[in-house]
Amino acid sequence: MGRRFYTEVAYAVGLAALALGTALMEKADFGMSMVVAPAYLVFLKVSENLDWFTFGMAEYCLQAFLIIVLAIVLRRFRLRYLISFITAFIYGNMLDAMMKVVGLLPDEVVLRVACYASGLVVCAVGVSLLFNTYIPPEAYELFVKELSAEYGWDISRTKTAYDCSSCLIAIALSFLFFGFGHFEGVKLGTVLCALVNGWMIGQCSKLLGKHFEFTDAFGFRKSLG
Q: Where are the domains of the chain?
């Protein structure tokens, strides 16, 4: 039996890891994670005219839209969907804070490569942790988790399919906002992330399951079901 890891702690650490990983990939500028690339492109476009509009704001606005789509597809709305938006709001503010800290790093090529690689791993760990908590994760993970549970799909494969779809949407938005032949936010790093992210999350989940036993510290699971 592995060491005890409280699911509530997994939620907090997972959310912080996602914010840090995303900030590191933004600093690298080799292409954002395909999951957040659409929000990043919206941020780039809108902030041209509204300088107060942040990446974090774009994140929770688009996640609110995704939650609405999920509710329509499953033909139900649960309390956990509302809490998922609250999670997205917290994450968005954490992301803005992390970007300010990571932005202090120098723009050297070697450091950018390190930022991309570490950001990819940290994001995968963050998602894996959120999959092990009963607290509704942000909408991206909730969408995959709910569809997998509803239709009995393998969660790693569902995640990969979702990531690839998000990548295609991001490419379309890049062309729409900035013209054909000009890529913003969607680069070689985005494609690489789309291909390996689902596998990395699966491996992280197996590793966490091997070494830790996830248990609840509080009795809120049923009320959030």
A: 3-217
